Q: What sequence folds into this?
């Protein structure tokens, strides 16, 4: 499932002001999948310690329950494109909304640990679908003049979803008297946290009925008249509808369906450019960014921070994540992808190194000494800021641009799979590593952040200002 790659004819696809508001609504509705992606990914942060207590499990088992959703993510991302090509983008969104809803209800009302894990896999599958369908749909319905800005809705929605989930968790915790297992509405607070996602999931489902199917899909199934209506709806009255339909048909016929076999070659199984994409994906995760979103409440409580305050710090970290993402969106086309990645790597090394130093001190009365506590808190925000303004956005931009046309889809799929696997490795290993030595764990993340600098300098080529065709 790919969007049209034809260059726009001058003036042919600029949405007129009277249409732009409607197009923004369509893109925002589709980006609700991104919001749920962020919300569902991070909401577990508020339930980690309560799940450990409720089921009396160790760090290794706890980590598997938290990380198992990523298995569903990988499967959902791998299959969403084919599903959408068969039944349509809107139907795919509706399936995703149903899965998000079912996962939220099941996670809030588990019978035992095994079915909580099962509902997390279902939610993960929905996340994987949303991660693929949202950007593809937005690209297919957006006029070329606004495609870049409308495409950024997905990433913005993800980071907003992360922040809102932390804010809601904080509010629920306070309502339950600061106890993650405190009673609220007949349930424990952590169950309410996981169940609240029913609301945005239902909204996503309802919005999917208010937006049109992708013109590209409609043409692929022979519904040209409806495709013309949608094109007129999103691109205005002044375009040549016959020419636009013909252009989309030509683009679809001329596309090369890249396969895994196309990626093979070179000295080490894959072509070198594929390894660069895998490397970007792995480094993005091995700096430990998802520890900040899955385990931050647990992390702060482990060094003596009050639970209510730990939830608040999780929320402020999410706000910093939004600010960093906005900075990246502003500068990625101005100063380039590679310089931004290098700036981010240097900032992450500083932030992670300071966290490792702070966590190396022994706790006094169950808390870090005051100086080290403040350094750890500030450094954590610095780390997230520099990640968000660089690797959080730049890696996806690189992966969308760096591969030659003939292998782009397949190479992007492999790189994205590597990212989910690396995400799982970090998520599954953190609780046990933290039990072993929290400071040493952050030293490991610091080393990966430092290694990303020579990797980018030597192997990653700048893609700013180049057409996709120039990639080879």
A:
């Amino acid at each position: 499932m790919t969007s049209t790659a034809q260059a726009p004819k001058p003036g042919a696809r600029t949405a007129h002001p009277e249409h732009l508001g409607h197009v923004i609504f369509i893109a925002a509705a589709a980006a609700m999948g991104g919001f749920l992606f962020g919300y569902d990914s991070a909401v577990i942060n508020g339930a980690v310690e309560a799940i450990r207590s409720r089921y009396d499990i160790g760090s290794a088992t706890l980590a598997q329950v938290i990380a198992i959703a990523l298995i569903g993510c990988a499967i959902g991302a791998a299959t969403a494109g084919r599903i959408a090509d068969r039944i349509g983008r809107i139907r795919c969104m509706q399936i995703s909304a149903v899965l998000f809803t079912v996962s939220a209800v099941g996670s809030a009302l588990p019978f035992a640990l095994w079915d909580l894990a099962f509902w997390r896999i279902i939610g993960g599958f929905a996340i994987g679908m949303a991660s693929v369908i949202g950007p593809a749909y937005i690209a297919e319905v957006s006029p070329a003049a606004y495609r870049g800005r409308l495409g950024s809705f997905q990433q913005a929605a993800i980071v907003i979803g992360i922040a809102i989930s932390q804010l809601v968790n904080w509010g629920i915790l306070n309502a339950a008297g600061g106890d993650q297992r405190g009673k609220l509405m007949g349930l424990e607070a952590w169950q309410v946290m996981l169940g609240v996602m029913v609301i945005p999931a239902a909204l996503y489902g309802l919005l999917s009925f208010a937006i049109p199917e992708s013109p590209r899909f409609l043409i692929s199934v022979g519904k040209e008249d409806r495709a013309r209506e949608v094109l007129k709806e999103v691109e205005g009255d002044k375009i040549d509808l016959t020419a636009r339909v013909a252009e989309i048909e030509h683009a679809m016929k001329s596309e090369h369906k890249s396969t895994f076999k196309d990626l093979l070659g070179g000295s080490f199984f894959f072509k070198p450019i594929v390894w660069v994409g895998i490397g970007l994906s792995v480094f993005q995760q091995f700096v430990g960014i998802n520890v900040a979103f899955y385990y931050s409440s647990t992390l702060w409580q482990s060094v003596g921070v009050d639970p209510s305050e730990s939830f608040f710090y999780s929320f402020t970290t999410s706000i910093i994540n939004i600010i960093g993402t906005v900075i990246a969106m502003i500068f990625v086309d101005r100063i380039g992808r590679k310089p931004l990645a290098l700036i981010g790597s240097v900032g992450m090394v500083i932030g992670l190194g300071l966290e490792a130093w702070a966590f190396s001190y022994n706790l006094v009365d169950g808390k870090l000494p005051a100086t080290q506590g403040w350094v750890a808190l500030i450094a954590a925000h610095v780390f997230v800021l520099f990640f968000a303004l660089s690797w959080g956005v730049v890696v996806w931009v690189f992966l969308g641009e760096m591969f030659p046309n003939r292998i782009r889809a397949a190479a992007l799929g492999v790189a994205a799979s590597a990212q989910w696997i690396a995400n799982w490795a970090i998520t599954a290993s953190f609780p046990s590593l933290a039990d072993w030595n929290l400071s040493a764990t952050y030293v490991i993340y610091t080393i990966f952040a430092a290694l990303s600098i020579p990797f980018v300098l030597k192997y990653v080529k700048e893609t700013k200002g180049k057409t996709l065709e120039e990639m080879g």
